[in-house]
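Continuing from yesterday's entry. The apo prediction looked reasonable, so today I'm repeating it with NAP included to see how the binding region is handled. Same sequence as before; SMILES copied from the compound registry.
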Amino acid sequence: MKAYRFDSFDNLDALRQREEADPRPQRGEVLVRVRAVSLNFRDIAMVLGRYPRACRPGLIPASDAAGEVIEVGEGVTAFRPGDRVMGAFHPRWFGGEMPSTILADSYGAENDGWLAQLKAVSQEAIVRLPDGLSYEEGSTLPCAGLTAWNALTGATPIRAGHSVLIQGSGGVSIFALQLARMVGATVIATTSSAGKVERLKALGAAAVVNYADDPEWGKAVRKLAGGRGVDRVVEVGGPGTIGQSLRAVALGGEIVSVGFLSTDNPGIDFFALKASGASIRNVAVGDRAGLIEMTRAIAMTGLKPVIDRVFDFDAAREAFAYLETGAQFGKIVIRV
Ligand SMILES: NC(=O)c1ccc[n+]([C@@H]2O[C@H](COP(=O)([O-])OP(=O)(O)OC[C@H]3O[C@@H](n4cnc5c(N)ncnc54)[C@H](OP(=O)(O)O)[C@@H]3O)[C@@H](O)[C@H]2O)c1
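Holo prediction written out below.
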């Protein structure tokens, strides 16, 4: 099979395609013919030295993929050849409390990921892909989709009448916009790109604030949310945006700490945190049960993941380079 590996995380030249022996499914495993892989910010953050943990070089990158089961190992009862599936981001987090294996299982950082033609994986680490979704669409769900779902659900699920702030137009944010609209919530979006404003509105954003033009965008969002602030912030900016998120959130609202896209880190003002009256919840993508639940909701409502560009397998390096620009609207996919 053909597979990509990062020989080091110095730069994108270290991403090399090679010919390798085909994996064989062991007991309890299935062999997946990978059809599509989607990229997430973490995949380029590792190369830029911006991933918050050390990563092991030499691994196959990418956490998210969809494909077809072509062979099953001994004892596999859940799947059979021909089944369309996607991988779960955390291969051993099935539900309940996060297991202590979570970091050791990390695709692309600690273990081989999915940017290969074939992948042998435990039958417990995949989930069925609904008929209405293509392999490309399905490949976008395991990380970005589930993270957005998790951010909007939790102890207080977002519902009609609630307001949600999304930041920028990357994978997680666009899913959060679509999923929030799916339940009838009002969405306010930020972007740094004037060209993306109409696209955000076309997806259902009630208002869009340009965070590059307005450094006080949190205040603007609060005003747009009736002066009260938003019920939920899907916080993907991290250290450089949390201060404004605290201004945008309503008393009793929730900031879901998801990402670290911003490069500046001015620190958090304790009294702003206290005065916001909001709670902060950290998420780490989500468990397999959540992936199944979200996939069912997507299948029933007909939500279509927003894919910006699809690259050929041989152009994987270009796909990573495009991810680095941040110019995308939604997801970047590599067709395998
Ligand atoms: N904790 C978790 O479970 C989890 C799961 C998934 C992702 N993440 C993290 O969440 C973040 C988003 O991931 P992703 O894959 O969705 O990213 P992505 O697709 O690469 O997002 C790119 C977009 O982010 C926007 N952006 C960049 N800097 C920004 C800033 N300072 N403020 C607001 N928006 C900014 C830009 O939108 P505009 O062009 O519109 O400005 C850009 O197009 C990353 O930090 C990722 O590592 C965490």
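Comparison notes:
- The first strand starts at residue 2 and ends at 6.
- Residues 40-42, 45, 143-144, 147, 167-173, 190-193, 196, 211, 236-237, 240-241, 258-262, 283-285, 323, 326, 328 surround NAP (CB under 6 Å).
Will overlay with the apo model tomorrow.
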